[in-house]
């Protein structure tokens, strides 16, 4: 137990010492010039900078993540036995994700595996759909809308996002319920005679998820396309390029960082969404985050929940890396 | 760009559908807040009522949750803005060879799913407070503030960094040449320059905290915020009181946005006046007439 405390305090200290050693080394070798860190900021401000960023980077970001990963490799034990002889590293929680409980007869833990791949697959699909929905409007806003029109469009876009995620999901429930306005319209027009169970078929969930993160797609796209010089589009048109050539060879390549950043954001938020699946999902809905939630608060198996959360995190990181690789971009370019 | 009539019609149609998708659900929900049936219903309108708003304000849990959300939002602003400021300054001073690693670490919470941040915060602080005998820190409010601060500080840092990169280093050098110390430069040059960015970071921090659900639902432990109470209510069943809450939130934010716009216009006008006055004074000086000494 004391070992982990030494780690918790030792790691930040070691990194800070390493930083100052590096800077002293560079100064002596003449690579770095100018005043040193504390000379440049003064002692008080310098201390504030180091302490604030140190606390943030270690106690709020890194150490909690490490603690979660560590826990995911431990068995579920009553508090009294934690740190005792039975508290050994194990792959049990990951084994459970693949093969289910040791007493079950099924070969694989299909329920969880299916939910996982469905979540990833649907998130990718929603990301692509959101890109398709947002691109024309983003292009219009960035390239051809007048200033007054742009202000109105921006206001209309932002307005729904003042309402929080749960209420937005709730709006879809009101809209799509069996007595809701969509079903009334469908039945009134004679297209169907029975109300369609949109929520049971997860249509509501997917619409709600796509809706929830439209803004995260449109703003990066808008920012990226806005920086494109309009003369380039004009020139291409004057030279006789058809409209789809202009988009495929001028606008899209230029907007690459914005596209990657929008896609990453939407994918991450969709795969990690919890509110929409809880509000719009039916009892048979497969989505990964509610399963993680249940590991904690239904099964009370925290190590297993941590393992599931880690699986989700790793797949999200892999996805981002693949997207970055595919677009040949660095992380700095997409979080701008 | 001169699109043909066909393209123009298609685009108009697309825009209408887009905004119908974007605003339709909210309008539907808004209407149901004023309709009498027990279940949120838009059509037919059986009768207009304000009962659902009364029911909302009589809901004790919601009101306690609201107070808690406001309190947590305030704490998050007090923690995230200073951290974001420090993070942005360090970003401009850190050795280039470790900058990308530093960037990766501090921006990672923006991309991490909220529930993972919530889970890891709870797991870490449960162990840490247990081992150091600071159990009183293992508290829903503290954990929620810490969990939310991880990514909200990163938002703040990105906002402040964007302005910091436009900072004119020669201002700093001028101040130093005139005998200012480094802390004085920080206090009298850098902070005033960053003030607009700090203000928008604070507003964004508060709003993100107020509407956060994914991280909060784990980190809040046995306490309740508005969003967690709301999630519980929505899962139990639909009532128009929930629609009423959405109407209230939209009304408050629209009024807030209008007030902010008016304030900004006034501030811009004042700044323009000051600039004009300064220009006139300068011209007067160039013309050789003595000007009153500036304080």
UniProtKB/TrEMBL annotation, chain A:
CDD domains: TM_PBP2. The lineage of its organism: Bacteria, Pseudomonadati, Pseudomonadota, Alphaproteobacteria, Hyphomicrobiales. Belongs to the binding-protein-dependent transport system permease family. CysTW subfamily. The chain crosses the membrane at residues 6-25, 45-67, 115-138, 150-171, 203-222, 259-280, 306-327. It is a multi-pass membrane protein. InterPro entries: MetI-like (IPR000515), MetI-like_sf (IPR035906). This is Spermidine/putrescine transport system permease protein. The keyword 4Fe-4S does not apply. Residues 116-323 form the ABC transmembrane type-1 domain. It comes from the Bacteria. SUPFAM superfamilies: MetI-like (SSF161098). Gene3D superfamilies: MetI-like. Keywords: Cell membrane, Membrane, Transmembrane, Transmembrane helix, Transport. It is found in: Cell membrane.
TrEMBL record, chain B:
Keywords: Cell membrane, Membrane, Transmembrane, Transmembrane helix, Transport. It is a multi-pass membrane protein. It is found in: Cell membrane. SUPFAM superfamilies: MetI-like (SSF161098). Coiled coil: none annotated. Its main location: membrane. InterPro entries: Bact_Polyamine_Transport, MetI-like, MetI-like_sf. It holds the Pfam family BPD_transp_1. Residues 66-260 form the ABC transmembrane type-1 domain. It comes from the Bacteria. The chain crosses the membrane at residues 12-34, 70-90, 102-125, 145-164, 185-207, 241-263. Gene3D superfamilies: MetI-like (1.10.3720.10). Belongs to the binding-protein-dependent transport system permease family. CysTW subfamily. PANTHER family: PUTRESCINE TRANSPORT SYSTEM PERMEASE PROTEIN POTI (PTHR43848). This is Spermidine/putrescine transport system permease protein.
């Amino acid at each position: 137990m004391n070992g982990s405390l030494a780690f918790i305090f030792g790691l930040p200290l070691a990194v800070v010492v390493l930083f100052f050693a590096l800077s002293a080394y560079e100064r002596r070798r003449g690579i770095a010039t100018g005043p040193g860190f504390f000379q440049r900021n003064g002692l008080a401000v310098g201390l504030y900078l180091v302490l604030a960023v140190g606390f943030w980077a270690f106690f709020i970001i890194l150490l909690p993540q490490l603690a979660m990963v560590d826990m995911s490799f431990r068995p579920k034990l009553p508090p009294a036995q934690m740190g005792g002889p039975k508290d050994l590293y194990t792959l049990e929680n990951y084994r459970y994700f693949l093969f289910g409980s040791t007493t079950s007869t099924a070969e694989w833990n299909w329920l969880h595996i299916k939910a996982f791949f469905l979540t990833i697959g649907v998130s990718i699909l929603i990301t692509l759909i959101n890109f398709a929905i947002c691109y024309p409007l983003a292009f219009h806003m960035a390239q051809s809308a007048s200033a007054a029109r742009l202000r109105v469009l921006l206001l209309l876009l932002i307005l729904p996002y003042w309402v929080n995620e749960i209420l937005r999901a709730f709006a879809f429930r009101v809209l799509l319920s069996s007595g809701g306005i969509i079903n009334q319209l469908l039945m009134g027009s004679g297209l169907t005679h029975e109300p369609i169970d949109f929520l049971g078929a997860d249509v509501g969930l997917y619409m709600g998820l796509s809706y929830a993160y439209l803004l995260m797609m449109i703003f990066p796209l808008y920012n990226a396309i806005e920086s494109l010089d309009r003369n380039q589009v004009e020139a291409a048109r004057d030279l006789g390029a058809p409209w789809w050539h202009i988009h495929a060879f001028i606008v899209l390549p230029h907007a690459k960082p914005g596209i990657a950043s929008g896609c990453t954001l939407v994918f991450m938020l969709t795969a990690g969404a919890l509110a929409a699946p809880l509000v719009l999902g039916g009892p048979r809905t497969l989505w990964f985050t509610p399963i993680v939630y249940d590991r904690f608060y239904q099964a009370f198996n925290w190590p297993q929940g941590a393992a599931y959360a880690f699986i989700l995190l790793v797949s999200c990181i892999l996805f981002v890396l693949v997207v970055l690789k595919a677009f040949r971009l660095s992380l700095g370019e997409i979080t701008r | 760009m001169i699109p043909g009539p066909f393209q123009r019609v298609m685009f108009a149609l697309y825009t209408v559908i887009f905004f119908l998708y974007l605003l339709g659900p909210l309008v539907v929900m808004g209407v149901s807040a004023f309709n009498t049936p027990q279940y949120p219903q838009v059509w037919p309108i059986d009768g207009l009522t304000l009962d659902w708003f009364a029911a909302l304000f009589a809901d004790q849990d919601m009101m306690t949750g609201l107070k808690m959300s406001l309190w947590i939002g305030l704490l998050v602003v007090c923690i995230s803005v200073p951290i974001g400021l420090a993070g942005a300054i360090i970003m401009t001073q850190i050795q280039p060879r470790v900058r990308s690693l530093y960037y990766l670490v501090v921006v990672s919470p923006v991309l991490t799913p909220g529930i993972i941040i919530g889970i890891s915060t709870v797991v870490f602080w449960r162990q840490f407070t247990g081992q150091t005998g600071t159990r009183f820190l293992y508290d829903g409010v503290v954990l929620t503030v810490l969990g939310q601060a991880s990514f909200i500080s990163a938002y703040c840092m990105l906002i402040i960094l964007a302005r910091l990169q436009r900072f004119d280093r020669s201002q700093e050098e001028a101040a130093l040449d005139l005998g200012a110390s480094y802390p004085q430069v920080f206090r009298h040059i850098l902070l005033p320059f960053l003030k607009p960015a700090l203000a928008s970071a604070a507003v964004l921090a508060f709003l993100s905290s107020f509407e956060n659900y994914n991280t909060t639902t784990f980190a809040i432990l046995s306490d309740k915020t508005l969003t967690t109470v709301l999630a519980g209510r929505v899962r139990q069943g639909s009532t128009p009181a929930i629609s009423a809450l959405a109407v209230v939130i939209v009304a408050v934010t629209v009024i807030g946005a209008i007030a902010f716009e008016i304030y900004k216009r006034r501030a811009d006008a004042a700044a323009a006046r000051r600039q004009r006055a300064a220009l006139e004074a300068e011209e007067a000086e160039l013309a050789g007439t003595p000007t009153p000494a500036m304080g």
